[in-house]
Write a structure and sequence with these properties.
The chain contains no helices and 11 strands. The strands form 2 sheets. Strands 2, 4, 5, 6, 9, 10 and 11 form a 7-stranded mixed beta sheet that branches. A 4-stranded antiparallel beta sheet has the order 1-3-8-7, with no helix packed on it. Strand 4 and strand 5 form a beta hairpin.
């Protein structure tokens, strides 16, 4: 059974830093591209960062470019999101998302989320 478990969410002051982790179980982690999404109350879900299966290529939303960094450890099957210079508008539930393929069938798996609150 596939399970993605996020951790690391917390309450942090503006300008602070956090590192989120997503531990993957039950899937061939190195065959999946991975994404971080976030959703704030009353807002649409936003794709924050993506990283390819090898960890060589990453992309970021304009809103976090230069402040967030996504990485992965394929041996340990863990996805990371290093967040710095946090702003109140970064407050949201953060979700990790695995995307893979079984032939022509796309596979999507989601974690339950971890809450990040940026507040003084």
């Amino acid at each position: 059974q596939v399970k993605l478990t996020e951790s690391g969410g917390a309450v942090v002051q503006p300008g602070g830093s956090l590192r989120l982790e997503c531990a993957a179980f039950g899937l061939a982690f190195n065959r999946y591209s991975m994404n971080w999404h976030r959703q704030a109350p009353g807002k649409e879900r936003e794709l924050v960062a993506t990283i390819d299966s090898f960890g060589h290529t990453s992309t970021y939303a304009d809103s976090v470019q230069g402040r967030f960094a996504v990485s992965r450890d394929n041996f340990m099957a863990i996805l990371y999101l290093q967040m710095s210079r946090l702003k109140p508008e970064d407050t949201a539930m953060y979700y990790c998302h695995a995307v893979g393929w079984d032939g022509d069938t796309r596979l999507d798996y989601w974690g339950q989320g971890t809450q990040v609150t940026v507040s003084s």
